[in-house]
Amino acid sequence: xxxxxxxxxxxxxxxAELANPAAPHDAIPAVDPRLLVREQGLxxxxxxxxxxxxxxxxxxxxxxxxxxxxxxxxxxxxxNFLSPENxxxxxxxxVATGMMAVGIIFVLLLGxxxxxxxxxxxxxxxxxxxxxVTHGVNEWLAVLAAIAGGAVIGAIxxxxxxxxxxxxxxxxxxxxxxWSGFMLQLLGSNGTINIDSEGVVGQLTTFYFSxxxxxxxxxLLAVVAYFLATFFDNxxxxxxxxxxxxxxxxxxxxxxxALVTFGPAAVFNQYKGLPLAxxxxxxxxxxxxxxxxRTGFGRKVFALGGSVEASRRAGINVAGVRIAVFxxxxxxxxxxxxxxxxxxxxxxxxxxxxxxLMNVIAAAVIGGTSLFGGRGRTWxxxxxxxxxxxxxxxxxxxGIATPIQYxxxxxxxxxxxxxxxxxxxxxxxxxxx
Length: 433
Description:
The chain has helices at 3-19, 37-54, 61-77, 84-109, 117-134, 139-164, 168-187, 212-240, 247-269, 276-294, 296-306, 308-313, 318-344, 356-366, 379-397, 402-429, and strands at 192-194, 208-209, 274-275, 346-348. The protein is mainly α.
């Protein structure tokens, strides 16, 4: 071992002694158990799971269990709930809200909120309809203009928050009102503009890859790509002498991924095939998850959610990251708006109104994103929106009125926030928050 490594080791031991002067000199330094998990195999992961449970780090476990319970209850009440047709309808409906939830997750990771995403989605649909239908602009250009409009709106909100110092709550609440009025102005006196159901936007929620090879082929591609990426990443880790996953764990993870990809593919192929909307949603989730977990920008977002002052001292451009995050939220609000316009084949005055905003925020929080910032993944949007949409469809199959649906969704959201708060307190007690 080199002299520098010996010095580093001695420095670590000295810090440990300062932190715990009563410890004997020959005591073995404490090692983070997370660094040993991969070397201990299955027993290590069992120990890690128990440690996380004791520390209150529940992850997505509560929402996964909740989703299983919800599906079991509604399937028991109505055998059509888990039918391929109903599951397809749930999958299509959840994409618009899910897209918007992906954007709101970025904002929540900062510990902030964006109340304007509903009205921004309405502006997006209206802008597309006005350009493509009223003025005859090419649909692809109209789509790009609508999405760019959402990004610009989000950046404006981020500017007032990051540069001027206005609270995000106040800025986006003002945006909610302003952009709602702007949408009404765009739609004009008629209040509704029908779009071409066979056009670019119209087919977002109606197009299916009917060939069974499409669904199964994409599932196989995802599984093979994951296995190869994980396998070669492990080879690099082993070559560098850092902890790596054992081969049996890689195979177990790959098998689980095969289950969650081939299962839905089989269900979709029993109805009309793989929906384009679901494919686009999954691609967005993969891309944004990579952005957050594998790039410098993503690390900066998490850092800001942990501590703004520490991030500033570390040299992070706080204002720039904040503006970018709100621009991302506006972009995905616009994308969600286009999916809503596709679903109803029109842009109208009710777009972005009602319970849409609450469902978007609820989807992010129910999925596991913390309202306090610094914890969450874009995959939380998928889990959360599945819970909300499943509840809505299950209650609709039973003929339960909309007010009861609101009450139940609100109760689920409250339960999630309570779990999040209790988890944070537990983690503070365990010294991990």
